[in-house]
Amino acid sequence: MAAASFVPLKWYAYGMKTTIDRGGRVVIPKRIRELAGLFSGIEVTVEFQDGKIQIQPSTKPVKMVRKGSSFVLRAPRGTPPLTVEQVNEVIERVRNREV
Fold first, then answer.
1. Residue of 79, 29, 77, 74 lying closest to 58 (CA atoms)
2. How far apart are the C-alpha atoms of 35 and 38, rounded to whole Å?
C-alpha cells in the first residue's frame, strides 16, 4: 500500500457522513472496510443494539488440517482468497499492536 494512500484510523475517530439510498444501502469508506475486514462479497451481520447499528463480518467455520509437519487453517469453499495487500495490512497491524 503506497504511503500517500494511507489514512490513519484516527482520521475517522469522530465518524464521517454518508447517505442511505432508497434500497437501504450505505457506502462504507474503503479504509474503514479494510480495517474492519469487510470485503466485496463477504457476508456480514447487522445488529441494532443500544441505539447503534453494528456491522461486522459473519464468522465462518474454519478447519485446522495437518499440512506436512504443520497445522494450517482451511477456510470454507467460496471464501475469497486473501490478497497480498490484505496480508501486508494484517502484518502491519500486528507490528503496530493494533490487533
1. 79
2. 8
Tell me: the pLDDT tens digits for 1-21?
Answer: 444 445 454 555 556 778 899
Q: Are 29 and 19 in contact (CB under 8 A)?
A: no
Give the distance, in angstroms, between the CA of residue 28 and the centroid of all CA atoms in the same chain: 11
Q: Minimal CA–CA distance to 24: which of 1, 55, 61? A: 55
Cell triple for residue 69? Answer: 509437519
In the beta sheet, which residues pair with residue 55? Answer: 46
Indicate whether this model's pTM tops 0.85.
Answer: no
17-51 burial string, b = 16+ CB within 10 Å, else e?
A: eeeeeeeeeeeeeeebebbeeeeeeeeeeeeeeee
